[in-house]
Specification:
The protein is α/β, with parallel strands linked by helices. It has one domain: 3-Layer(aba) Sandwich (Rossmann fold), CATH 3.40.50. Helix content is about 30%, strand content about 25%. Strands 5-4-3-6-7-12-11-10-8-9 form a 10-stranded mixed beta sheet, sandwiched between helices. A hairpin with a 4-residue loop joins strand 11 and strand 12. This is Homoserine O-acetyltransferase.
C-alpha cells in the first residue's frame, strides 16, 4: 500500500526514486476506492489445489479483491468434479461482457504439444484477445506464460533435453522494476516444465523486457513495456510439497525424470523438502496487484474498452 505524506514534503522525491509509492494528501483526498476484480483462468488439472495456492497469494494483502474463477469448455476436466465447476466456475461466454482489473492465466501440463494442438487453444486465444480490451493487467504463469508470449508477441517455446524441475537461484536484472520491489538481489523460485523460451528472443523484441533470470533455469520473469502483460515462467504459487508430489507421480508412471534440483536436502528424495521461495512468491503477487493493478487501473472499468 502507498504511504500517505504531506504535500511538498522534501522526502517525496527521494522515496519515489527508490520505487516507494507515496501518495500526497491532495491525491489521497481525491482517490476513489473500490474492490479489485480479478479473473483466474485455471488451466491446471488439479483445479482445487491450484485455486487454493493462488488464492493464498492474493489474500495476503490489505487490498480488497473479488476473484472470479474461469474454466475452458473445450476441454473436459477429469481431476475435478463437474459439480465443483458448475458451482464455482464460469465460462467465457458468461464473463465476456465484463471488465476486470486483473487476470491470471495458470500453467497447464501440455508443454510437449504444439500450441495449436491443444484442444482448448482456439478458446484460449479468444480469451487472450478479449483480455487486451477487457482486462487492465494480465499475469501469465508457466505454460500460460509461454502461451501468452507466443500469442501476443510470436515468441516460440523450445523443448528441453529433459524436464526442468526444482528450485533455482535467480538474479534480479531490473531492480528498478516495482514488480521486484523488496526482492533480494538473488532469490529462489520453483520451475517444473519440459519447454523454455530463449532470452535472446525476448531481448530482441523492443516491446518486452526481462526482469529476472536464472543461469540454470533461464528466464523467470518478463513483462511488456506497457505493463499490460506479465510472464512468469516458473511456479511461485507452489506449496512446499508440490514438486515432490509431481516427482513421485512421474516416477510411479514410469517416466525418466530427474530429482528436483536444490529442493530435497542433499538432493535426497526420501527427505522432507523445505520451502525457500515463499517470501519472494508472495512479494511477486503483492507487487503485481499493488503497482500494476490497484495503482493504475481506471476507477471506471468501462473505460478499458468496448467488449467484443
Amino acid at each position: 500500500m502507498p504511504i500517505r505524506i504531506p504535500d511538498q514534503l522534501p522526502a517525496t522525491e527521494q522515496l519515489e526514486s527508490e520505487n516507494i509509492f507515496v501518495m500526497t494528501e491532495h491525491r489521497a483526498m481525491h482517490q476513489d476506492i473500490r474492490p479489485l476484480r480479478v479473473l483466474l483462468l485455471n488451466l491446471m488439472p488439479k483445479k482445487i489445489e491450484t485455486e487454493t495456492q493462488i488464492m493464498r497469494k492474493l489474500s495476503n494483502t490489505p487490498l480488497q479483491i473479488e476473484v472470479e474463477l474461469l474454466h475452458t469448455i473445450s476441454h473436459e476436466s477429469k481431476n475435478v468434479s463437474q459439480e465443483h465447476l458448475k458451482t464455482f466456475y464460469r465460462t467465457f461466454d458468461q464473463v465476456k461482457d465484463n471488465r476486470y482489473d486483473g487476470m491470471i492465466i495458470t500453467g497447464a501440463p501440455v508443454e510437449l504439444h504444439e500450441f495449436e494442438d491443444v484442444d482448448y487453444w482456439d478458446e484460449l486465444c479468444r480469451i487472450m484477445k478479449w483480455s487486451t480490451t477487457n482486462v487492465h493487467s494480465t499475469l501469465h504463469i508457466c505454460w500460460g506464460a509461454q502461451a501468452g508470449i507466443f500469442y501476443h508477441y510470436g515468441i516460440q517455446k523450445h523443448e528441453l533435453p529433459k524436464k526442468l524441475s526444482g528450485v533455482f537461484n535467480h538474479d534480479v536484472l531490473k531492480p528498478s522494476s516495482p514488480l521486484v520491489r523488496g526482492f533480494d538481489d538473488k532469490f529462489w523460485a520453483p520451475h517444473s516444465r519440459h519447454t523454455t523460451v530463449d532470452a535472446a528472443d525476448i531481448e530482441a523484441d523492443p516491446r518486452l523486457e526481462i526482469v529476472a533470470q536464472s543461469d540454470e533455469a533461464g528466464v523467470y520473469i518478463a513483462k511488456s513495456i506497457d505493463s499490460r502483460h506479465f510472464f512468469v515462467f516458473g511456479h511461485p504459487e507452489y506449496d512446499t510439497d508440490t514438486l515432490r508430489n509431481e516427482y513421485n507421480r512421474d516416477v510411479n508412471n514410469g517416466l525418466d525424470v530427474p530429482v528436483p534440483a536444490h529442493y530435497f536436502p542433499s538432493d535426497d528424495p526420501t527427505q522432507e523438502p523445505v520451502s525457500t521461495w515463499r517470501a519472494h512468491a508472495q512479494l511477486l503477487y503483492t507487487n503485481w496487484l499493488n503497482y500494476y493493478v490497484y495503482q493504475t487501473t481506471p476507477y471506471d472499468l468501462d473505460s478499458l474498452g468496448d467488449a467484443e
